[in-house]
Amino acid sequence: MIKAFAWAGAAALLAAGAVTSQAADINDAQIAHIAYTAGNIDIAAAKQALAKSKNPKVREFAQEMVRDHEAVNQKALALVKKLGVTPEDNATSKSLSDAAAAEHKKLAAMSGAAFDKAYAANEVAYHKTVNGALDSTLIPGAHNAELKSLLQTGRTLFGEHQMHAEHLASALK
Amino acid sequence: MARYPTAFAASAALLLSLALASPAIAAPKVHVVVMDKLKFGPVPAGLHVGDTIRWVNKDLFRHTATARDGSFNVDLQPGASGTTKLTKAGMIAFFCRYHPGMTGKLAVAK
Ligand SMILES: [Cu+2]
């Protein structure tokens, strides 16, 4: 419940974006920024887990998050460069970053099994939030076909990660 | 003097019979399964014990091909490929350890 709450503000903002953005008020530069930020947030969370956790399952999962999100974000950087788009900061990116900073702080105060459980639960909640945003706002809102296609790859990846995070969370119970 | 042609004919006949027999023995084959876009590609039909699967990771991400029964496991970086041998008959389910939605099945005959 607490974990879901941490992302509630960002999720609400993303949903509001979906309602109002009939192509108009979210552009590709903003979408690229949100997607890139979403990947970076998960990389930062994974690095925190790698610094704190001794659980091999948690560590393997965190290594996977770093590896996969770095791969997508590298692609995203290459794409925006090719398209001549400069990712543009926006309220949604900021909301995601703020929620991530709060979560990071909360997890920093934990250790051992309590940290592992909280990290896994947060990974489930976070991937759910981003998947919702990709489905409702980011993918439908993308104008450029290559950006849309990369977001779709990101969506499949986040779906796999959510499933893996759910397996991890239930294994830690 | 006459023995050489006879021996030659005999060995030629032996070679010929081996050549004719070999299709029935079915030499082990190599089959390819591609990994791309967080999915396993189509699994070839006509798999037999002793055959090899060549797993080709064309994706952006690292994947494994891991048998649920533990009979094979290969861990591949993006762009890498690796082989596993089919050691037993039956329906063998496999998955990626990193991406649990990536699954497939091999139908292996004796
Ligand atoms: Cu995988």
Count of the domains of chain B: 1
The distinct bound ligands, ions and cofactors come out as: copper (II) ion
CATH architecture of chain B: Sandwich
- Which CATH top level class of chain A fits? Mainly Alpha
Oligomer: heterodimer
Overall average residue pLDDT of chain A: 90
Helical percentage of chain A: over 70%
Number of strands of chain B: 9
One letter per element, helices H and strands E, the order of chain B comes to: HEEEEEEEEE
List the uncertain runs of chain A.
18-24
Taking all Cα atoms into account, the compactness measure Rg of chain B is 20 Å
Write the layout of secondary structure elements.
The complex is a heterodimer of chains A (173) and B (110).
Chain A: H1 2-6, H2 8-20, H3 28-52, H4 56-83, H5 91-108, H6 112-141, H7 145-171
Chain B: H1 3-25, E1 30-36, E2 39-40, E3 47-48, E4 52-57, E5 63-67, E6 73-76, E7 81-85, E8 90-95, E9 103-109
Parallel strand pairs in B: 1-4, 3-9
Antiparallel strand pairs in B: 1-2, 4-7, 5-6, 5-8, 8-9
The complex binds copper (II) ion (CU).
Protein name (chain A): DUF4142 domain-containing protein
InterPro entries (chain A): DUF4142 (IPR025419), Ferritin-like (IPR012347)
Domain DUF4142 (chain A): 27-168
